[in-house]
Amino acid sequence: MEAKHQILIVGGGNAGISVAAKLLKKDRKLDIAIIEPSEKHYYQPAWTLVGGGVFDIKNTIRSEAKLIPNGAKWIKDAVSELLPSENKLTTKNGDAYEYDYLILAPGIQINWNGIEGLEENVGKNKVCSVYGFDKAPYTWEVVRNFEGGRALFTSAATPVKCGGAPQKIMYLASDYFRRQGLLGNTEVHFMNAGKVLFGIEKYRKSLQKVCDRYGVKQHHRHNLIKIDGQNRTATFRVTDGDGNTSEINETYDMLHVTPPQSAPDFVQSSGMTDAHGWIDVDQYSLQQVKFKNVFALGDATNTKNAKTGAAIRKQAPVLVENLLALMSQDEIQGAYSGYGSCPLVTARGKVILAEFDYSGKPTETFPFNQAKERRSMYFLKKKVLPWMYWNKILKGTA
After folding, report:
1. Which one from 8, 300, 342, 385 is the annotated catalytic residue?
2. Whether the model pTM is above 0.90
3. One of 75, 89, 162, 173 is an active-site residue; which one?
4. Fewer beta carbons within 10 Å, N or C terminal of the chain?
5. CATH code, domain carrying 136
6. Domain match, 268 and 325 both
7. Same domain assignment for residues 197 and 279
């Protein structure tokens, strides 16, 4: 089958749905189709809370069909190939779709096979991860049944969605160990593939105090490359200050893994990516640098912001403004600032709300110091933001 739509949106997650809703609020006559294979839609920011035992996994899932905006067509299929030179794409069902304008919002791809032994061990052998609907509950099972020993929490060498999640689950687990009287016979290790605890100094200082409170030992430039689940051993590639690498083995009684991530495979073969495989867009206008009738937002782009839902909320109105300007042959003026937000859960009932832009400058919403742990921000994270997501953001009104 072949068909054509005025605007084709690839991806029916946060970015795709909210952009479609905003466009249709501007003009109900737009011909919009959304390509999305999944029948379920997930509120992923809560999976860390699920792993920490403070959120019900059932409340993170809704029917995709009920979230598609009225006026948009849902193509329940997955993209197999993007052909931007032909203003066309093909799907796994063998269909082809042409477009006048394309919006890429495919989300990020979790590469469970990117670490040797991860695929066969995650979900058992005390190897867990909050990066999946089917995996987050086992994380809480591991935390809940932990009896002391060595707890390792990794971060990845690639960009990941919600870069704060590896620390959030570590702090929630540590807080639980403390409440159970286990911290005294527990070693908590943050095995960080990056160079620092957190990129923004203001928040890094506060997070260092949190690490000190729990006795977290930090190991930077330690990239997980192999897991031996039977022997409960994790292998890390360590890079020193001169760029030299070596490998070390660490035993564990609990291992939380942040898997490596990338743009989806069909994006990487599209001719629209940078050298690292991310969709190459102007970081302000969100227009693809080569194909001007293509825009992109969300986790699969090469914008330098944190890959968070909060970033999408600020990107979506900019993209909508610029796409409509292009369609009207007006000058594109909308500019995304690089805003990102990370509600860093540091304990049950405590959150540091980090907000910052491309420059790394804190851009805080509230008239108080957000680097301080606050119960009010925990309420925002656990109650307000999920409500906003389902009732405002996906409906294009936030």
Report:
1. 342
2. yes
3. 162
4. N
5. 3.50.50.60
6. yes
7. no
